[in-house]
Amino acid sequence: MLRYVIRRFLLALLTLITVSALAFFMTWLSGDPALAIAGDTASAEDIAAVRDHYGLDRPIVAQYFSWAGRALRGDFGVSYHFDLPVSEMLATRLPVTMTLGAASILFALALAIPLGVLAAVYNNTIIDRAALTIAVLGQAIPTFWFALMMMILFGITLRWLPISGGGSWAHYVMPTIALGYFATPVLMRLTRAGMLEALESDYIRTARAYGLPIRSILFRHALRNALIPVVALAAVQFGFMLGGSIVIETVFSLPGIGWLGYDAILRGDLPVVQAILLVVAGFYVILTFLADLLNAALDPRMRSAG
């Protein structure tokens, strides 16, 4: 187990280093940051002064190592546009995105697991087809369109829920459904596949032969094994939600890091963009690493396979 943990940790560390380098270097491809700071009407002297002030005249590799060293200490620099420490800006916005991501993945699991179990138990029936139809719709409908339709129905027509802002739990209802429904199909199909495999296994047939209650067979034995791969996928989906919340946060005007990142991209605010990319990637890598450890604890076969 220790060897497995070390291998997974080194892989996660290498992934994070690679992502940090890509996040830093690729943001430079969008254009000259000194020009974005100084403005289109700035003179050559003004642009040169900006480069000198922010250290943009140094070699880009030297800038990366300097940025990475500060990032390890939680210092992501100062926003070009707001002239505020990026770490403080993230600290105020990150709880909103984390709340939205956590609520969305819980909603997706609460919908996907029962649907997957029903589809497996009633395989090749109308219930199975109905569950699969729900899954197909979740991936076929564009997230932003689904969000807009909910805003029109529940926010404008029925006036049940607020359509923008993040001041109360009610502001998170529609964003949670919109973001969580997109992750439901893949979780549902994986649950269904795992349940079908478990229900056809020898130990389930043995449990049935001993006359165990069907509820015990389904939820205590079959579902427990079927959920092992769902755990890893849920962690991956949670990471995707943190990174993909930019659309939902923009549509609903939720003041999270997704909306902050969208605004920073429009303004060419590189320190903010780089910090958001690194933080989201860090959460993604950590969640995947923890999911691997949990799966290894639940399924010893993975330790030798890893």
In round numbers, the mean pLDDT is 81
User: How many structural units, i.e. domains?
Assistant: 2
N-end to C-end Cα span = 10 Å
CATH topology value of the largest domain = MetI-like fold
Helical content stands at: over 70%
Under the CATH scheme, the architecture of the largest domain is Orthogonal Bundle
**CATH class membership of the largest domain:** Mainly Alpha
Main β-sheet description: none
CATH homologous superfamily classification of the largest domain: MetI-like
Oligomer: single chain
Q: Which band does the percent of strand residues land in?
A: under 5%
Description:
- The chain has 306 residues and is an all-alpha fold.
- Helices cover 78% and strands 0% of the residues.
- The longest helix is centred in the middle third of the chain and has 36 residues, at 86-121.
- The chain starts with a helix and ends with a helix.
- It has helices at residues 2-27, 33-38, 44-54, 60-72, 86-121, 126-140, 143-157, 173-199, 202-209, 214-226, 228-252, 257-267, 270-298, 301-305.
- The protein has 14 helices and no strands.
- Helix 5 (86-121) packs across helix 8, helix 7 packs across helix 11 (228-252) and helix 8 (173-199) crosses helix 10.
- It folds into two domains: 2-72, no CATH class; 88-304, MetI-like fold.
